[in-house]
Structure formats: C-alpha cells, structure tokens
Amino acid sequence: MSNPVSDGYSPxxxxxCTAARLMTDKTTAFIGTxxxxxxxxxxxxxxxxxxxxxxxxxxTGAIFETLPMAVGGECTFHRAIAAAGICDVMEAAQRGFIExxxxxxxxxxxxxxxxxxxxxxxxHPKVRxxxxxxGNDVGSFCWRTIAIMRHDxxxxxxxxxxxxxxxxxxxxxAREAAGLPPGTGPYRVVTNLAVLGYHLESKRMxxxxxxxxxxxx
Amino acid sequence: MEVIQSGIGQLIQKPDLNAFREWNRQKPKALIxxxxxxxxxxxxxVYDGDYIGTELYGTVRCPMSLVNEVVRQKKKDxxxxxxxxxxLDMLLAASLVKGMDITYVGLEVYGVSNVFRREVESGxxxxxxxxxxAALAWRFKATAMGVPFVPMRSMLxxxxxxxxxxxxxxxxxxxxxxxxxxxxxxxxxLIHVHRADKFGNAQIDGISGFAAEMARACKxxxxxxxxIVDTEVFRCHPDRTIIPYYLVDAVVYxxxxxxxxxxxYIHVRDEEHIKQWVEASxxxxxxxxxxxxxxxxxxxxxxxxxxxxxxxxxxxxxMAQGVDNEQPCI
Lengths: 217, 330
Known about the structure:
- The complex is a heterodimer.
- Chain A is about 20% helix and about 20% strand.
- Chain A is of the alpha/beta class.
- Chain A has one domain (about 10-210): Glutaconate Coenzyme A-transferase (3-Layer(aba) Sandwich), CATH 3.40.1080.
- In chain A, strands 2-1-5-10-11-12-13 form a seven-stranded mixed β-sheet, sandwiched between helices. In chain A, strands 3-4 form a two-stranded antiparallel ribbon. A two-stranded antiparallel sheet of chain A has the order 6-7.
- By secondary structure, chain B is α/β, with parallel strands linked by helices.
- In chain B, about 35% of the residues lie in helices and about 20% in strands.
- Chain B has helices at about 15-25, 40-45, 65-70, 85-95, 115-120, 135-145, 160, 210-215, 230-235, 270-280, 285-295, 300-310, 310-320, and strands spanning about 5, 50-55, 80-85, 95-105, 125-130, 150, 165-170, 175-180, 185-195, 200-205, 220-230, 250-255.
- In chain B, strands 2, 3, 4, 5, 9, 10, 11 and 12 form an eight-stranded mixed β-sheet that branches. A four-stranded antiparallel β-sheet of chain B has the order 1-7-8-6, with helices on one face.
- In chain B, α2 packs across α3 (about 65-70) and α4 crosses α5.
- The longest helix of chain B has 13 residues, at about 135-145.
- Chain B is globular, with a radius of gyration of 20 Å.
- In chain B, about 55% of the residues are buried.
- Chains A and B meet through α3, β9, α4 and α5 of A and β4, α5, α6, β8 and α8 of B.
C-alpha cells in the first residue's frame, strides 16, 4: 500500500477519527491512553454522547474535558459514574459487561495476536517492551477487540515474537479450546493506511477499507 | 483437578497462607501512634531481599517519597510487583531489583522504560515473571481472601501464561480449562493516600486502584499521607475507610509525596520534571546524575520538595481541577 496523501490532517488525526467511528453510542468500551482516549473523546462529542468509557484503574463513565496522560489520571474519572478500582473493572470485563476493547502492540499477526512484551528471544531479548499490562485481559474479556496500529512491515508479521494478548491464537476454535470466553475476539484493526477485519471462518485478517488516498499494491 | 499446563516462570514468593494467618494474629491491634519519618519507616520495616509492592502506579498517587528513601538507604536484592512507571524506574535505576512479577513497566506516553530495558537486557534483573494486570490484582485479592489461588479467564492460550507461574486446570464444575493464579503475599507495601490518622486508618479520594487488595496482602504496610487528620474523620464516615489501622505499621506525613506524579484533586503531575527524567534515563551517566541530584543529594522528602521548589509545587496545586467539594467530615 502506498502512503496516503496528506490533506490537512495528520496520520494520528486520521487514526483518531477512524477509531471514533467504530465507537457506538450507549455501549461500553475499555479505553487505553493515547489514540483510544482521543477517539472516545471525539465520539462522545459527535455520535456517541452515552458511550461509557472504562479505564483499567477504575474510572467508569467519565466525561472528557481534558485528555489524560495516564490511565489512572484524574480525567479518567472526571464527572464519572464511578471511580472504582482495578478489580471492579476487570471483574466487569470478565462478567461480559464490556463490549469494545481498544488495544495496541508492537507486533500483530494475521490472527490478531499482539506482542507488547519482547522483540527477539524471550530470555535474551533485543528489546524488552513494557509487558501485558491490561492488554491480555482486554483481549481476553471484551466482546470485540479493536487494535490500533501504525501500518508497517515490522509490525504486521506472519508470526509475532511473543503472544502477549490473545487474538484468534492459531485459528478457528482456538480461543474456546484454550478456555477463553466464547464469542469474544479481535474485531477490527485500525491503521493509518486501512481498516481491517477478520474472515468469519478462517479468522484471518482481511482488508475492509483503505484510508483516503491509499491504494492497494 | 487435572493440571493441563504449567507456566515455566518462577514462583518468586510462595503463598504460605497458614504462616500469614499466624503473622496477622500477632500484629498489634492496639491504637498506637505510628507516625514517623520516611527514614525511620524504611529503616524499620523494609529489609534487603524483601518482596515489596507500590500503589497506585507510576505517575498517579505513587509513593515516591517512600521509594526515594528505599533508594537512599540502598535496600538491595529486592523483589517487586512490576506495575509501574516512575517508582519502579527509581528502584531499577539504582539496580536494587533482583526479581519481578511484571505486568507493565513503561513510561506510558513516553514509551519504553530505558532503565527497565537496561536492567533486563544486561541480566542484572535476574528474574522476570509475566502476568496480566488483572492477574496481579487478583493475586492480591487471593491473599486478601486468605486462599492460595483464584481462578480467572484471561492469560489463557498466550505466551504471557507460558512465562508466568500460573497453572491451567480443568474446572471441576464446568470441565472447561481455567487459569489459576497463586496468592501473592508481600513483605511490605508502600501506599500513598489522601488522608490518614496517626494510627494508620486511611482514606483515598478518586479511583482506588488496587489499594484495598494490596494493603490486605502485605505483612507490613507503610502509609504516606497528604494530610494527617483526627480519628473522628474516620468515625464520622467509616464507609470511606479503605485501609483500617491494624493493617498498617507506619504512617508518614508527606505532602506532594507523589511528585512528579499527580494526586487527584490536590495537584497535577509535573510534566517538565517527568520529561527531565525520560531524558536523563536514556544514558547510565545521566541517570546516575539524576539520582545524585534528587535522591542521594537530599536528606529527606522535605529537602527534595525544596529542591523542586515551592513556587513550582504551588503551581501544580493550582492546576488541579475537579476539586472534591464533599468534606470528609461535618
């Protein structure tokens, strides 16, 4: 795919707008810092005023006025419904209360498995990354997981170095066989070049749409 | 129950709940004035080789004044709960950490932690065991419940589980595979709160993170507080006590103890100072210079605050929004 023609907006703004359109009103979404946060803020002002945002350290149903730099920051529970704790939020996710989960990673494979732990071999890593954090839980519990990624060949791989967060693992039925809650899993991948989904049967990633000005090569 | 899979990560703290019960039985239940300085609290209650936990994390309600004192006293060979940003960066920068149950160590919007990378990639941090965020929170919860493990439905099918010390078993009730995570008993927990009384009763405003669970999973707890209040504040609103006094060993009066992190409703985070650390942490020499200036170069938290400057701190205070209008008492 070729690079998009910049036309008065940045690649980040494009990611934010695309992700915001995937957030529907009157539903719940697990939000991480950065682009998902900006997207949720935009969605709340546009088409989803009743979007219930949930942050892993306890913020539930905040109304955004400023943008937080941390998932536990004050803005994550500003005028919120509840300022709870991590167990409360993770237990709600495990009970099936959270529809969308927004996550990122350094690498993704065709089944939507994500790596945010190490580049290279685990015991002698080339780069040690931060680790799962809430990523693994979001990818396990949320009904629909949306990955937000910068699109390049170092990030989209046939096999990731480490499966931090489960996608469809190694194919159809693998999540259920592993014991993950049925009916959950990757839904979309939003990148600066495209929006991708997953084939209903093979569970492999497929192209749904290209971003403006992008062509499939 | 049949064990289907065992994580290959090391169980770096054994969940001996019978010993924990004995420990809790002998903990003083009398109302004792536990106020002391950071120096005394860390000297008396943190030992070399201890397994320590900090709460909340990184840039939010983080117990920096206590962590800085641990660094100043060079408590070594520590094992820690790896959920953090700034506080763990300080311990890692001083090479005090030998083992870690990690879920996330990074600088959030500023990316990967430079000191964490150096400690892992050089092998100085000998043991890293992977977990998800919920797994660590529920490991505290298991200890708080007094049981050796809790079942959970994430981690399954991933390398996060493979490199953890969790186990997958066939659930005796449903027959489905389920992940079991072991109770995590901490030697000492460091928690910064909005207000405490001299006995150790504590209230937190805003999100509570995992304070309630972690405080109940520790053999020793050191509380630092923005404000020391009369016990009457707790007696008027007992529903707001998140940590009761009998869990607590030391109470330290420490305003701005989360600096450069934020303390909700009181002050915002110090972005410039955080950037200064992100910059300094890139090279070992500048990392050392930062520690020399802000930790080793000052005697205590008071001197640290003076070094940062009261004018700057007052500015961070003025920028705090969403002030809590509800008074704790009366």
